[in-house]
Amino acid sequence: MKKNIKLTTFLCMITSVLLVNACTNNSNINPSKHELGSITGRVYFDENSNKECDCECGIEDIKIRIYKNSCAESIFQSVDSDEEGYFIFDDLEAGTYCIYPDIPFTCEGFTPTTGINRIIEIKPGESIEAEWFSYEKYVDLATD
Q: Is the pTM above the cut of 0.90?
């Protein structure tokens, strides 16, 4: 009986020390504040101009820029779309971001079929897929 009491007392003391230590070491840390998120998306050629990706080809090597707060700010990061038009921004803190694909428009033969930027709000640790960017072939009606 005395062994059980001693063992129980010992286990209670160890548990107390561990709990106090855990609380003391983490009291100044807000884990949700430091969880990083990501934003993914795609740039594709909208062959039928319906603003939906119907198994259409992605556009490779498009520079995608991301800005903190709004597109009027300085560029925060940039990545290139892969061979299928996909892109990802990792390790983002919670906040508002603006994504903008740097694609040549009518002078290079493309015109957007969806908006030209995306404003996205991410929460701590959240991964968001942005609405995809779509482009169609530009047709100059004045010359056709």
A: no
